[in-house]
Write a structure and sequence with these properties.
about 100 residues; three-stranded antiparallel beta sheet
Length: about 100
């Protein structure tokens, strides 16, 4: 099940990407595609990096309205909606340390 049929398949790791396990990357992409297919999220972009190896994938849509717009790996997200989450988590972590 591919939420974005135009999205490329998970590439096999190259010699430089050997620290990244291809099976884990396939499972990660499958979880993201399932979340999109079930309507839990419109789309997601993931960047995994370990040492010099990196892997990226994009699934789903950048926008659903007024028309669907495919998501790509270069998508820029508005972080304003993360302000409350980031600030609350930081404050809670500091309070827990005290």
């Amino acid at each position: 099940m591919n939420a974005n049929p135009d999205a490329p398949a998970v590439p096999p790791p190259t010699a430089a990407a050997a620290p990244l396990e291809a099976g884990a990357l396939r499972r990660l992409r499958a979880v993201l595609e399932q979340g999109v297919a079930e309507g839990r999220m419109p789309g997601a972009v993931v960047h995994v990096e370990r040492g010099a190896a990196s892997w990226r994938c994009a699934v789903g849509q950048r926008a659903l309205e007024p028309a669907g717009e495919p998501l790509d790996e270069q998508a820029v997200y508005d972080c304003a909606s993360l302000t409350k989450v980031v600030c609350t988590a930081t404050v809670m972590a500091r309070l827990m340390q005290e």
